Amino acid sequence: MQNADPLELQKFSELAHRWWDPTSEFRPLHEINPLRLEWIEQIAGLAGKTVLDIGCGGGILSESMAARGADVTGIDLSDKALAVAKLHLLESGRRVDYRKESAEAHAAEAPERYDVVTCMEMLEHVPDPASIVAACAQLVKPGGHVFFSTLNRNPKAYLLAVIGAEYILNMLPKGTHDYAKFIRPAELCRWAKAAGLEPDELIGMGYNPLTRVYRLNRDTSVNYLVHTVRRR
C-alpha cells in the first residue's frame, strides 16, 4: 500500500496544469519559495550537493534548488504534476531527475544517497506522515540535512489556514487542507528523533494580508519549518 490519499492526489492532479502560473491557486507556493529556498541555502549550501525533493509536485522548489547548483531528484505520485514539472524543464533549461515513486520505495532503493532531503507542504496530505519522516532519515547521508514544512494543529491554525486562506481570502481552493491532518511541532520532532534525525531549528512563516507579504519569524503557531540533521 502506498502512503498516499487518492483524493489528495486527484485534487492536486486536477490543478497540475496551473502549477507554474504565479497568479493561480499555486500563487502561495510561488511567493513562499524564495523564503524557503534561502533558508535551505543558508543552512546546507546547495551548490554541488545531491538533493531529494519529496512531494515535488510541479517542481517549483526542485528547479530553484537546481538553479543554485544542486543535483536534484524530485519524486511524487501524481502523473500530471510530474508531466508538468518535466515540461517546464524545456522552458527553464534546468536539470532535475523527476520520478514517480513514493518516499518509502525510494528509501529502499537509495539509502543514504543524498546530502539534503526536502519535504515541504506535504506531510499534512498523507495518511502516515511518520512513515515519510522515517524514509527521509533513511535517504539522507549521515550528517546530512532534512528540511520539513507543514501546518500546526490548533484553533488559530484552523482559523487562519483553513477558514481565512480558503474561505475568506480565497488564497487556496476550498478543501485544500484537512485540519485533522495538521501536525504539532512536538509530534514532528518526536517522529524525527525516533528516526534518527536531530531537530536543529524550528521557525515559523507568517503572512500579512494587508501587505500580502510572507516572512520567516518565530511564530510557529500556524505555518512552520523544521531543520533536522541525521545523527551519524
From TrEMBL:
Keyword terms, alphabetized: Methyltransferase, S-adenosyl-L-methionine, Transferase, Ubiquinone, Ubiquinone biosynthesis
Entry superkingdom: Bacteria
UniProt-listed Enzyme Commission number(s): 2.1.1.222, 2.1.1.64
Keyword Methyltransferase: yes
GO terms, biological process: methylation
Pathway this chain belongs to: Cofactor biosynthesis; ubiquinone biosynthesis
Catalytic activity entry: a 3-(all-trans-polyprenyl)benzene-1,2-diol + S-adenosyl-L-methionine = a 2-methoxy-6-(all-trans-polyprenyl)phenol + S-adenosyl-L-homocysteine + H(+); a 3-demethylubiquinol + S-adenosyl-L-methionine = a ubiquinol + S-adenosyl-L-homocysteine + H(+)
Database matches in Pfam families: Methyltransf_23
Keyword Transmembrane helix attributed: no
InterPro entries: SAM-dependent_MTases_sf, UbiG_MeTrfase
GO molecular function: 2-polyprenyl-6-hydroxyphenol methylase activity; 3-demethylubiquinol 3-O-methyltransferase activity; polyprenyldihydroxybenzoate methyltransferase activity
Positions contributing to S-adenosyl-L-methionine binding: 36, 55, 76, 120
Entry function: O-methyltransferase that catalyzes the 2 O-methylation steps in the ubiquinone biosynthetic pathway.
HAMAP family noted in UniProt: UbiG
Family the entry assigns: Belongs to the methyltransferase superfamily. UbiG/COQ3 family.
Name of this protein: Ubiquinone biosynthesis O-methyltransferase
